[in-house]
Amino acid sequence: MTAQAKRWFRSRDASLFWSQATRTLIYVLLSAWALINLFPIVWVALAGLKTDVEIFQKPFALPERWLFENYGTAYEVAHIRQYLGNSAVFSLGATALGLALATLCAFPFARFNFRFKGVLWGFLMAMFLLPQSMRTIPLIVFLMRIGLYGTMSAIIAAYATGGIPFSAFFLRAFMESTIPRELEEAAVIDGANVWQVFSRIIVPLSMPALATLGIFNFLTAWNELFFVVLMSRDDRTFTMSAGIANLSAKMMTQHSLVASAFIISFLPVLVVFILGQRQVVKGMTAGAVKGT
Amino acid sequence: MSGMRKSRHHVSGYGSSLAIFLFLLLPLGGYALLNVYPSLLSIYYSLNKYSGLGQLEFVGLQNFASMVGDPRVHTAVINGFRNMFLVLVIQVPLGFILAFLLSRVTRGAKVFVFFFFLPVVVSEALLALLWRFIYNSEWGILNSFLRAAGLDFLALKWLSNPKLAPWAVLVPGVWQWVGFNVVLFLAAIEGLPQEVLEAAGIDGANGWQQLIYITLPMLRGMYVMATILAINGSVGGGLAYPLMLTQGGPFQVSYTLSYYIYGLIAPRWGGGVARWGYAAAVVLLNFALVSVLSGVTWRFRRGLASE
Prior knowledge:
By secondary structure, chain A is mainly alpha-helical. Chain A has 16 helices and no strands. Chain B contains 16 helices and two strands.
């Protein structure tokens, strides 16, 4: 290395250059992964607006004519309207029921001492470690016996109860750390009973936690495949996820329709994620971040 | 109602035993009936032969013996390990690297997190559809790209080549969950005590030294947690990808445990007769594998902590 070069490397110009270069490199790498995630989705969105021939011949080109009617066709042909409706009913129903049960469950654990409290809580958390798939077969048999197998309400109830341990864990921690006990104390002194404390103080003040859990549970339910398919007698209770898995086999050869179906089912998830990104991320990572 | 009974929390006296019981009745009752009871019953089912119709037939440990000689179980377990390998070698480290890079960025971090996390919130069924478009050997995104780059010899039949198919059904899951790891590690990095890093900076440690001597060791706990979560999620191998990309083929090389269990329970799409007793046994095998592997990882963490 020449003396001049050495001098340059030690100069402020050089350190400025390197920090700029590093920053640019970091942005390039981050953008590369973002692009890898985004590109296929954009490709499929465009494929949904093309003819099949165009997909084969010019996979990377923009559509020659933007066939927005493909989306309408997919919506009609592919039972997508029905699946979207089921997804909405299932996801909203399971989320609402699951949160209601988990809030009822978390409150006594957060506020009272009672017999078997530790044992019950430990058991609930231990059960959380069991995989969902374990209960599936006996659950199907049980629901068949009582004549509820394949009904939407049974699917919702069964799915919603499965989420109790995690939601109760999250809510109990929130209630214990965030909701001040003085409020309850004052209410009790003013003659409020335990239900009034719960419904007028605990539930309203738990709203931030409920919002996080709600968005997270909604998306998880919306995406559920294994459970919904196995708890369904036929495609009348299929959600979007299950319906897509079922349909993709039938529509193998109509690529632009499949692509349109993809986008139609992707949009609701995208909207929820855009609106609730922070809550989604928080809900999904809460268990792990707390566990370390 | 007595306002102040003796207890740790001074207002806790206002809940009578009856009230507590009523609060817990529905959630715990529902959980016991629809989760605990069927989960435990599945252990008994695994000792029976049962097609879903008629009576259970007790066969003892025969289902477990059959698994030993079942080539699909072998394939599924091997693919579970392949998946675990990919996840531990690619997904978790890549998640860490991207999180570290994100932590050095002042502007646009939120936008990146959005795009990184996006696949995590989309259903596997939907992404499997996407990957069919990526993998299609004639006009798919991957091969079109390779041909455009002059790499025609690499434009392979990803889903119908028996050597490639087992990996091809695993890659989408590995890709999908990278963003989850990014967010885990980003939270951990942001939670690091800033004073330590600042002190190191004042003492003249450069970015690399800070990373290797401070950030990495302090993130070990999160790394173990991410590893355990990754093991939990990877051994089953996923359902939607094998189901929608290969149907376990060609020649049953891309079976995963989740897909096999699914086919045993609901043969309407998988073909054959429902074997619910056997399926219950395969579920237990899956659970046992996951428990042992996460248990070993957990012990490894304790070993590190006690050093």
